[in-house]
Amino acid sequence: MTEELFRQDAYLKICEATVIGVDAAGIRLDRTVFYPMGGGQPGDIGVLRRVDGTAIAIADARKGSAPGEILHVPAAGQPMPTVGEKVNAEIDWPRRYRHMRMHTCLHLLCAAVPAGVTGGQIGEARSRLDFDVGDMTLDKEKIAAELNRLIAANHPAAARWITDQELAATPDLVRTMSVKPPSGWGKVRLLDIAGVDLQPCGGTHVQATGEIGPVTVEKIENKGKRNRRVVVALAG
Question: I want to staple 31 with a disulfide (CB 3.0 to 4.6 A). Which of 3, 91, 124, 145 is the partner?
Fold first, then answer.
């Protein structure tokens, strides 16, 4: 298993690590700051800096086939390290931070639209959530105003854990209708935006909503009789 330092501190940009595996699928490290693609959030990109000063460009980070395994996927034509080699793993921080801002914004969007989530995708500048709205009518301006109000209030956001049994006893915590949070590990990670939103999430987030900055609701799309897609974008 890879020690997931990004779970402990999403603001870590670099860490020392040891190569524990190399094959066609990617490079495995004993510890990493690279978030692997999941939950609608893209995997981090960046570099592995070697002792001799050269760098291996990492084009993606993904979960491996084994539990707790993270693959650092090198860009085409990159040299490969050897098992046991020491490297500094460094993410593309500006890109990651935009993902953190957008991911936390989508949790606020869940608070602004009280409906089940049927899908979502996080990008650097814009992101979207799909909602099963039933008979509800969504107003773009009202949603944008509520999002920016919650952002400006600078609510603290922090991860905490509950047991599988606690999650089973409170099923309303799960907003996603198509994908259920992983269970069987004994505990589930929640993102708690104080007084605003609480739901399972393994992604990386900002520490307070004010870090998101102003946002716009670009459009609301009809994706079926009950399904509506809300697209939000960072204003700066």
Answer: 3
State which H helix or E strand residue 117 sits in: strand 116-121
Please write the tens of the pLDDT for every residue from 165-184: 888 888 888 877 566 665 55
Token pair 């104080």: residue: 194
C-alpha–C-alpha distance, residues 161 and 146, integer Å: 28
Same domain as 170, residue 230: yes
Distances (CA, A) of 192 to 3, 137, 199, 200: 23, 27, 7, 9
Q: Identify whether 1 is part of a domain.
A: no
Give which of 98, 87, 108, 94 is closest to 18, Cα–Cα.
87
Burial 156-167 (b: 16+ CB within 10 A, else e): ebebeebeeeeb
Neighbours of 178 (CB within 10 A): 11
Q: How far, in Å, CA of 21 to CA of 27, rounded?
A: 6
Whether 149 and 55 map to the same domain: the answer is no
> What tokens does 212 get?
């998101």
